[in-house]
Amino acid sequence: MSSYHISRETSYHLFPVTQDASASAYQIMSYLLLNHEMARVLPSPDSGVAEMFLGGGRLSTGSCYYLIGCALSALYLYSPFAVSVVVPYSNCYALDNSSHLVDFTDWTGHIFTHEGKDGDVVVRFCKDVEFRSQTGYIDFGRFGASNYFVAGSGSIDFVQGFYNGDLTNCEHTFDKLGRTAQVNIMCGNCLSGGCKGEFGCICSITYDASKCRVLVEIAIPCTKLGFRVFEGFTVGFHPRSWEVVYNGLTQIGFEKPHHEFSFGTDNSQVSLYLTAISSLAGLVKTPSYKFFSFLQVNPEEGLEITLSGSAASGMAPTTLSPSVLLVNWRCEKIHDRPYEIDISIPVKGYDPIEFTLTKFCGYKQGREVDSLRGWATFGIISCVLIVLLLASCCGGFIYKTRVEHQHGLDALPGMTILSVCLEAVSGPPRSYHLGDDGFDGNYVRQASWERASTSHQGTQRASERRSGQT
């Protein structure tokens, strides 16, 4: 723009969209909707309004690239495929027969009432089942874990189980759980068509012979199907654990960044163990990751990440033989807030498994190659010193044996100094004396004693010989 002279009064319409942000929303909308009129926001000397794009009538190349980039970024960030399949915050959910997640959290505690002659049956959705009469309340069980909510069959879409009810007159039930209840859920209306309204109703009630178990059928307008969950898939920090993903659902704490679930700087590697049902293990594809910082820095800088292990090489995970995904990350820049790494595991025919790992970078971490290089240098220097020491010892030994005519330990280099040091530490010898001829006194005394005994024996034999003659 510096090579052209543009008049402030007459050439507003020549500025491209990439150099103006006063009406970016209008520009993006005009491009997506192919409506040029939405972009006419600045005055022009010709018609009073002019397009924000270069040339006044056509989109410039830079503007097109800019708008396409904005549109793709928006689609990527707000696409449903970018959201992980997270376990609901309540246990009021179920997977239908096609493995789609159906969340009934909004229905939790909703009351369904069926009026009878002796009393009313009240179902509090995902809470409990009660029989209410003038004599009091009878509890037919309470809703517990999410495995009490499963898919049904036939005309029944879902089944809820309620256990641990009142024990009065039901102490001898086969499961020892007191009164129980089963609620069959049908999406839509009752089979008889008697249920109307948007909040559902109770279609029928059936008791067993002992009235320790009640079967309730209700009809409700079911919510829209959610993601398709890859059942049986787990991810954990141990081959038999599932802290990150359980039954195909990302667990709370790893669905988005959490301070209390972040890893420290000293943790340079994280091992993740993947398991799946053997018959469906071939559907799991190679994991990948996305990375960015909360500080909005360059995604390619600050944290070096590599994925390795059997899972990264494409090995199918099974229950008996889990595959391992090694996340190697090294801090290159120090930040006060953690880095976020979104790991995605594609599954053919299902929504991808996605979870988030975060790491604090309190100091810079050196490369593993640098540390190995230091140890290698130390080893080479040590080997060179050992070889030089052995060569010098051999040369000194040869010199002392050939030139100085020394033998044994005295010919080894440094033995004289070593013996002096040992004598200085242990002190001088007490009974170790060398004579002039090189023999010690003990040997001399022993030789003189032997000579004395020999002469004595000779004298004794001579006397014996004379006695015999006499």
Automatic annotation (TrEMBL):
<protein>
    <recommendedName>
        <fullName>AT4G36440-like protein</fullName>
    </recommendedName>
</protein>
<feature type="transmembrane region" description="Helical">
    <location>
        <begin position="375"/>
        <end position="399"/>
    </location>
</feature>
<keyword id="KW-0812">Transmembrane</keyword>
<feature type="region of interest" description="Disordered">
    <location>
        <begin position="450"/>
        <end position="470"/>
    </location>
</feature>
<feature type="compositionally biased region" description="Polar residues">
    <location>
        <begin position="451"/>
        <end position="461"/>
    </location>
</feature>
<dbReference type="InterPro" id="IPR002092">
    <property type="entry name" value="DNA-dir_Rpol_phage-type"/>
</dbReference>
<keyword id="KW-1133">Transmembrane helix</keyword>
<keyword id="KW-0472">Membrane</keyword>
